[in-house]
Please model this.
Amino acid sequence: MNQSNGNGHTNQHTLAESITISGVGIHTGAPVNMTLEPAEPNTGIIFQRIDLPEQPTVKADVDFVIETNRSTTLSNNGASVSTVEHLLAAFAGCEVDNVLIKIDGPETPILDGSSQPFVEALQKVGRKKQDAIKTWYTIDHNIYFLDENKKVEMVAMPADTFRINTLIDFNSPVLGTQHAQMSNLGEFNDEIASCRTFSFFHELEFLLKNNLIKGGDLNNAIVVVDKPVSDEQLETLSKAFGKEKFAVTSEGYLNNLQLRFPNEPARHKLLDLVGDLALVGMPFKAHIIANRPGHASNVEFARKIKEHIKKNRFKVNVPVYHPDKPPVHDVTAIEKILPHRYPFLLVDKIIELTDTYIVGVKNVTYNEPYFQGHFPGNYVMPGVLQVEALAQCGGLLAIPKDTEDKYDTYFLKVDNCKFKQKVVPGDTLILKMELKNPIRRGIVEMRGTIFVGSKVVCEGDLTAQIVKRTKND
Model:
């Protein structure tokens, strides 16, 4: 697994202000109020049951999913919240990362059965950019999920964006085989968010008999009628929902709603998948192809993706070094920026440089002057020089550009420094420095990692100060 390039880093976002959304839960029928509030960076999406003693919380994470029957339910610390997928899909589509949801019931409001009302609420208050980096993860090989009993197949393939293709087939003469796609998250709000949940007529009868869908009023679900129904059945359903007598259209849908898209059911399945995959808890880029997705399968697929990310997270920042590719800065250009010279210039070239991170290269050879006295006969690069190499690389990131003034960077502190593997002659060090926070008042906080191949040999948090040189320096 590698960190995505180009758009691999963005800023995290929260809400610009609080907003309250009210409605009823589709299964419980209970009125519920949700207040969405801004949250600190790295919080994620948190639900808080303010109607319960101690007001417990549960994070929107696949580790806390306890139920996937017809919707996705989270539970932890005594807090349980169901039907979270439509709201989570809206957060994903609007790219809102950190929110505290204060909710006074066990189920989010169903509203019109889609994500559209949530999207509209989020767009109304707007987003607030936060001083924290959002890392998008990518995968470097296919991740598969298969459920032969349900005939579900899913795969996540390497891609430079987050895209989904879904295929549904319920052996229904009405629905037939439907396909939906989303090329990137930017399409979600216009193409996917308004697509409502759907149910088969015979399922409604079962749910009513079992005292479920108490909050359903048929304004929030498309009803598919793919089997013959009697006038008596239609009348019973009409009375249950307090409506005028229903009829079946020639297309095989109950005449309660007009389709927003010809393939609205397939698009809603894609919507559910976006919401359920948000439970991975880390934004990632992949091309998802899902055949016959459902909440249970979506959640198990999310578990596999999260497990893969966690297992390979130590590799997530491994840069790719192509020696034949021209560098961003060669050593001659580096000397014009840094004051260091032989034998203390420890960066040979810069191969990547953005506003938030930099990647440099240091080739370690037998001819390094320190090898004469540092473990002669067992040549090991001193750890302090590895950290110095990182610092110099970070200086190239932090020093102001496009100015004739000269600057130096000075260490203020080094935290959490670990040396995981010795560095010896012949090693090529890949030096990566990432901004942890925006530079303020000349103070730079960075996360540094040194790789040899795909292995981490050194890492730590470095803080430095940028100081403008005086004319006498």
